[in-house]
Amino acid sequence: MSNDRVRLNEYEYHLYEEAKSGRMSRRDVLRRAVAMGLSAPVIGVLAACGTGTGSGGSGGTSGPSGPPKRGGHARFGASVPTASPDPVTMYDEGSIQTVQLAGEYLCWPSVTNVLQPRLATSWKAETPSEWTFNLRKGVKFHTGATMTADDVVATIDLLTQSSNGSSFLSQAKGILDPGQTEKVDDYTVKFHLSRPFVDFPYLMSCYNYNSVILPKGYSIGTFMKKAQGTGPLMITNYSPNQSVTYARNPNYWGGPTLPYLDGATMTYYASDQSLLLATQSNELDVVAYAPYGSAQTLGSASKSGTLRLMPTHSSAFDTLQMRTDIPPFNDVNKRLALASCLDRPGLIKTVLDGYGVVGNDHPFGPMFKGTSLANQQVPQRKQDYHQAKKYLEKAGVPRGFPATLTVQSYEDIPSYATAIKQQCAPAGIDVSLHQETQTQFYGSGKNQPWLTVPFGITNWAPRGAPSQFILTAFQSDGIWNSAHWKNAQYTNLFSELTGTQDEQKRAQVAAKMAEIQNGQVPDVIAYWLTQLRVAGAKVGGLPAGPAEYPDVRAIWLG
Description:
Helix content: 25-40%
Radius of gyration: 23 Å
CATH architecture of the domain at 314-530: Roll
Shape: globular
Number of helices: 19
CATH superfamily of the domain at 314-530: Dipeptide-binding Protein, Domain 3
């Protein structure tokens, strides 16, 4: 061992062996070590014996040369929120970005998906079902009140109440329930999980975007009415559907250095085109998540030096869901036939302007740790019309069949739908397109078309681990299981995946799950998105990602 003064427990030594043998890359080992809350000396030992980098995010921070400058008012742009932004109920891009300029989480992912301390200084798994988080001292809410364990417990209890309309439950249901968050002392919180979940810290980060820590007694619907986050910027004025203004938080716990900005404005845009025009005309300093249709135009502007296009690999994707319980896709051969029609590299080129990575119809993407075995063992699905015809013959429809694809008018989705229609036609699969607004497609209450239509496309924001996707979308009882897919073996394997700390076992289980899902293909995952962020030439200190979640603490204007 490189440092015999550091004593490793059983799990720490297990990671050491994984790194030393080369079975896990240095980056993957560090991701797991940080997620499990291992100490800095242990992480140092693991880093020293690891090799390679594995797959991960691209990009970092870049911008004007020289040291950061204090002052200035940054201009952000985003899509119009579907409702008044609130940490508890938000689910759309505009709302999430609005809140995240003012609110914070217990931890936050770096551009390479390594969790960093924020409102928590450290965390530790006593077992995969018992997690202890140590809170940062000296944090004040914008109201002036000091943040303590009482606020964290109250926030989580609020988020886990099913009657609150909280999207938090989409990822935490069955894992963390009301009353399972315990105050140990004023700055220590213990989570007693309903089931083992080794990826739990990701649920306390922006990857579960509703888990913003709020003051005890918070009233849902008031976040935009008075400043009550802990972030570097404070909301000072909100004009619905138009804009939000922010001022520097003079009591920010990262101070006196952070934040550098005096304030900021978030302006809302009703369409991608209007957002693009504002970006081109230098009306904005930051577009945290830029539309793919603007990639060529923004790329040209980036080459001219008027702005910077900042791509980063991500775990975001567009799922092409096919309901497995009703016609026409209750026959697996029809699903396999459609999946075999798609030219995945071609889709990335035409729909995403090249900003993507080929997917293989399972959530164990190449940017996640411990997924290399899954991607090695499951053959990559390619466009093969001859194979598609064989599947159609097995389904009893050798000449094909009709299907109506319901899509939302958002980002790259309409272009993707058109490409699907074109690529399925040679096999005889006649795809008709039905387009709705984003509000119509997601709906509310009992009217949520994206969860009920026989055939649809849903855009999924990035997550920190495959388990976050599987829990909500691919489990029999998943709250967002839009394909209505049920597979008992897959569900049992998922319990093994999230309940063990043995990395080799996790890799083997993931490979088996990937094989099952690829063979059943309830959802086509044709590509993983390389997300785009745009910054003005004078913007410094802005990380390239995660794209949908802007970290504005260290932004400065040159």
